[in-house]
């Protein structure tokens, strides 16, 4: 194992802001953030539909607001295989709804309230993610 | 007011994802590449988020009700079953393939990258399939 590209300060700072968002949503609206649930329910449920859509709109607006206060652009590097991204998207969409949460719902909101269910979910998807990358790198 | 709170929470959450660089699939895949070139940043994002969200969750939930809603409304599902493990496994595989989970994926739509948009559309199809076949985890 080599440690590369490690950016602890932006990572921790961004994490604090994410935690703040979870706390604000809980204090004001009484709900815990789980993005897969918010996104899925925005599509399929009537209850809280407008709130869910506004939360998603907030996410999409964030890069623009960030750009107003920052000089640097936002660069990402992503696979350029449509087949891979379709498979990945389907797996993430199906998997998160079957298990009832993703990195935010289980990983932050769930672990934050010491839910054993969420701790087990998070350990599972991290181990499988690590194995998937390991196997992908062998191919 | 609670609509504004949803939008605001989404914006804060998204800014956290941008600052922590979790919108970049390369950062996520670097974290999952534990046996190769490992980038521990994602662990610091989760620590930052939990340091804020967890104590505030436990303080806020003692209130009688949230500031802008009638009652607290969050999952109290404690079930640990095959559904939880299966869903988390599928999610982990998709996460390791694409390097995107729901929050960063939706936030990255703002960057107008065709591959991340392909992922998001596929993810929503996944949400819809789980709903149609009634496979969702109960809350």
Q: What report would you give on this structure?
A:
The complex is a heterodimer of chains A (139) and B (139). Chain A has 139 residues and is an all-alpha fold. Chain A has one domain. In chain A, 73% of the residues lie in helices and 1% in strands. Chain A has six helices and one strand; from the N terminus they run βαααααα. The model of chain A has no long low-confidence stretch (mean pLDDT 96). By secondary structure, chain B is mostly helical. Chain B has one domain (2-132). Chain B has six helices and one strand. Chain B has helices spanning 2-19, 25-32, 41-60, 82-98, 102-107, 114-132, and one strand spanning 37-38. In chain B, helix 2 packs across helix 4. The longest helix of chain B is centred in the middle third of the chain and has 20 residues, at 41-60. The mean pLDDT of chain B is 97. The interface between A and B is large, with 112 and 119 residues. Strand 1 (2-3) of chain A pairs parallel with strand 1 of chain B.
